[in-house]
Amino acid sequence: MVYYISFILIGVGIYGILTQKNLFKTLVSLTIIDTAINILIISLGYIEGCDVPIYSKYTQSTNFVDPLPQALVLTAIVIGVGTLALGASLLIRVYEKYGTLDTEEIAVKEARK
Amino acid sequence: MRRVFSILIVLGLILFFVNSLSILPEYGKVKLSKVSSAYINKSVNGNSEKVKFGESKDLEDGSANVVTSIVVNYRSFDTLGEVTVLFTSALGVGLILHGYKRKKYGRQPNFILRISVGILLPLILLFGAYIFIHGHLTPGGGFPGGTIIAAGILLLYLSNEEYDLSKASKFVESTAGSLYVIVGLTGLAISGIFLLNFLPTGVVGNLFSAGIVPIVYILIGFKVGAELSGIIADLHREEG
């Protein structure tokens, strides 16, 4: 079952967000959750024994899988790339100000001020 | 202690998901909805003929790739919003990292990198262009083609310290975005519908078919390539 793979990946991402102290690893965990949800949406459109939704010389039958989830996931992937780029640029600014990406060390440096 | 509580929370979530599996349809046995079959048979306006590759003429949408026909013809306004979201995120990256300059190391990179970039870069750019020109016939389209072009630009940035393409990328990006809106306004002027497919749709499967779909996909490919190149150039700077 592909659904179970998606659920396990969502669990891995949430565990990473809850336990990691490095901010970059938190960003990676967010990206893992994004990918897991994309896998879940695409697998909702699969039909057994059907072809790719493209008319060509090799697929003369019109038994296609559902093309709507693929068109929606295309939008989701592009927006995920945009949020990842914004998060990375914010992390560059944080590293410039504090010299580290560890959340506990950042809290200690804030308390000393 | 923190890890134990996190494991318990995650296990509870996965148990909740598995218990709610009965809402979803069984894997591999989904039924096509009315909307999807109308998109596949290209019969949104009531055409009830079977579509055949290389024979069907002058349908309401002539692209052989069904996903492309949904994304760029039936729901083209949605794609315009998506390109706007990508533009806004590139603008935010440029705004946050304002004031940095590129670090100059003062030495040339490796010999292999310098010589091979002249051989590899035209091939990479050609492959990206092939993917977004054939977006209505084969898998792919404007977004993957633009990403491949941006990867070629990254190789160019690594091989030489003197390149600076930020002004050129901003010019290409704004021009392509404006042309997309102008194509939409042309449809509005001809028939009163924004982003109408006003060119003739030819035989399904030819290169010159599907009306404005290849034109719009070429514009999207240029725009996405320029935007991702701008993001790469912004992230390449350091304190200097």
UniProtKB/TrEMBL annotation, chain A:
Q: What keywords sit in the KW lines? A: Cell membrane, Membrane, Transmembrane, Transmembrane helix
Record carries keyword Transmembrane helix: yes
Membrane-spanning segments: 67-92
Tell where it localizes: Cell membrane
Identify the GO cellular component terms for this protein.
Answer: plasma membrane
User: Does Methyltransferase show up as a keyword for this record?
Assistant: no
Q: Which InterPro entries match?
A: CPA3_antiporter_subunitC, NUOK/Mnh_C1-like
A Pfam family this chain is assigned to:
Oxidored_q2
Membrane topology is: Multi-pass membrane protein
Q: Give the protein family.
A: Belongs to the CPA3 antiporters (TC 2.A.63) subunit C family.
Q: What is this protein called?
A: Multicomponent Na+:H+ antiporter subunit C
UniProtKB/TrEMBL annotation, chain B:
What family name appears in the similarity comment? Belongs to the CPA3 antiporters (TC 2.A.63) subunit B family.
Output a single Gene Ontology CC term carried by this record: plasma membrane
Residues forming the Na+/H+ antiporter MnhB subunit-related protein domain are: 112-228
> Could you tell me the keywords of this UniProt record?
Cell membrane, Membrane, Transmembrane, Transmembrane helix
Q: Which residues cross the membrane?
A: 83-100, 112-133, 139-158, 179-198, 204-222
Q: Give the subcellular location.
A: Cell membrane
Q: How is this protein situated with respect to the membrane?
A: Multi-pass membrane protein
Q: What is this protein called?
A: Multicomponent Na+:H+ antiporter subunit B
Q: List residues of the MrpA C-terminal/MbhE domain.
A: 55-100
Q: Spell out the InterPro entries in the cross-references.
A: CPA3_antiporter_subunitB, MnhB, MrpA_C/MbhE
